[in-house]
Write a structure and sequence with these properties.
By secondary structure, this protein is an alpha/beta fold. The chain contains 19 helices and 17 strands. β3 and β4 form a beta hairpin. The N and C termini lie far apart (56 Å). The structure holds pyridoxal-5'-phosphate (PLP). Pyridoxal-5'-phosphate (PLP) binds next to α13 and α17.
């Protein structure tokens, strides 16, 4: 019987530096734009929201950025994470491909998200900030930040989309265990929340509303800053520990990927895995012409069907305009189980690399995705988050292709989190209750029309 094996790194091999891709992009990233001035946002202005060091990292041109020893100390609780060779899955698929996955589900919150939450809490603490505010949908990001803040003796205030607050209590309880204050959003804590509640007291809330409340809370208090769990450059930077470790682990077994896969919500975990391999390719150090595959839901097809243009990061249009693939900031996601993949935009870094043809894109619906996940579970035993299951579907498809062609490709994917708090998805799948969703193309065209009407000068920007 084939056994799937763990490839472990010694504790002192947690990376000492993060990899910053900004100096290695095929062309410079388009700057965030302030829609009032129509000018690039001055990084200084971002310091009202974020810790200074995080703003510095956001625009840094240093390729390698030191990971503070205090952050590595917390990483030690679960890092280095194991790399698995999925030998039982390979056998089940009768594929000559070799399948590896980097298992980020071993962190206390159960996903890759604390890689950045811990770093963000640390830098804010160093700058004398006592409290961080953020939003969360189903609670993955909120729980990671609650965990990070707990470690550095800070308070966390998490605005949680009201419908999830009531329907998905487990991550709320996790956050409260770690000492965070969790507030169902919209709330009467903020002016924006009160306004929404007045108009519609029974609203289920949305991520866009929760973002607006968290930002308002941070900018109206002296001791608080805001924190974001994906999309921004500094978040992708912190996630590169994943790929840097994976590269060392593959060296142990003398292997190198032909293809690197990851699911994409805002793009941070997939970028964290593939960017260090992109660096190899860019600097001609890659052993093979490695390919990168981003995987998303057909219900939220940002990279595969969205438009590459400036848009807001939130529904209330509080954030600057970011150049990215977008489905429109007023996109209302269908109710799929992969809550972490329902964002209307994606990280500008990842979008640029897709636009430039450096990264390929695939999209699947949640029925085929859950089917792939249940095959994976029967081989490997570990229950993936519904988000992770998207990457698994793409890997299984590629492994089956290898069975046809007889190629023994090396496939590597990011196992972004475990699914033990998302068992409802599997229950619905096993009972045949899951629906496939496809986001209608007409809606995307409508979005572009609306954006162009709102900002008719968008086409004239030089970026
Ligand atoms: C949040 C989340 C994602 C999506 O976020 P990215 O920024 O795209 O990584 C994926 N998987 C899991 C388990 C998550 O919690």
């Amino acid at each position: 019987m084939a056994t799937s094996r763990r490839i472990l790194l010694p504790e002192d091999e947690i990376p000492k530096q993060w990899y910053n891709v900004l100096p290695d992009l095929p062309r410079p990233l388009s700057p965030p734009i302030n829609p009032q001035t129509r000018e690039p946002v001055n990084p200084k202005d971002l310091e009202a929201l974020f810790a200074k060091e995080l703003v510095r990292q956001e625009v840094s041109s240093d390729r390698w950025i030191l990971i503070p020893e205090e952050v590595r100390e917390v990483y030690r609780i679960w890092r280095p994470t194991p790399l698995y060779r999925a030998a039982r899955l390979e056998k089940l698929l009768r594929t000559p491909a070799k399948i590896y996955y980097k298992y980020e589900g071993v962190s206390p919150p159960g996903s890759h998200k604390p890689n950045t939450a811990v770093a963000q809490a640390y830098y804010n603490m160093k700058e004398g900030i006592a409290r961080l505010t953020t939003e969360t949908g189903a609670g993955q990001w909120g729980s990671a930040l609650a965990f990070g803040c707990m470690y550095f003796g800070m308070k966390a205030t998490v605005y949680m989309v009201k419908v999830s607050y009531h329907q998905k209590p487990f991550r709320r309880i996790l956050m409260e265990c770690w000492g965070a204050e969790v507030i169902p959003s919209p709330s009467d804590r903020t002016e924006f929340g009160r306004k929404v509640l007045k108009e519609d007291p029974d609203t289920p809330g949305s991520l866009g509303i929760a973002i607006s409340e968290a930002i308002e809370d941070a900018v109206t208090s002296d001791d608080a800053k805001y924190s974001l769990g994906s999309v921004l450059n500094h978040v992708l930077l912190h996630q590169t520990v994943i790929g840097l470790e994976a590269k060392e682990q593959l060296k142990i077994v003398d292997d190198y990927p032909d293809m690197v896969f990851g699911c994409v919500g805002g793009g941070s975990s997939f970028s964290g895995l593939f960017l260090p391999f992109y660096y190899d390719r860019k600097s001609k150090k890659a052993e093979k012409p490695v390919r990168f595959i981003a995987v998303e839901p057909t219900a939220c097809p940002t990279l595969s069907k969205g438009v590459y243009m400036y848009d807001h990061g939130d529904a209330a249009r509080l954030t600057p305009l970011l150049k990215m693939y977008t489905l429109g900031h007023d996109f209302i996601p269908p109710p799929i189980h992969a809550g972490g993949l329902r964002y209307h935009g994606d990280a500008p870094i990842l979008c640029l690399l897709v636009k430039e043809g450096e990264v390929e894109v695939k999209a699947y619906n949640q029925v085929e995705v859950c089917k792939a996940a249940s095959l994976f579970i029967k081989a490997e035993g570990i229950i993936p988050a519904p988000e992770t299951a998207h990457a698994i579907k793409a890997v299984i498809d590629e492994a089956l292709k290898c069975r046809e062609t007889g190629e023994s490709k090396t496939l590597l994917f990011n196992f972004s989190g475990h699914g033990l708090l998302d068992l409802k998805a599997y229950d619905d799948y096993l009972r045949g209750l899951l629906q496939p969703y496809d986001y209608p193309e007409e809606k995307i065209e409508e979005t572009i029309r609306k954006l162009k009407k709102l900002y008719p000068w968008l086409d004239q920007l030089p970026y």
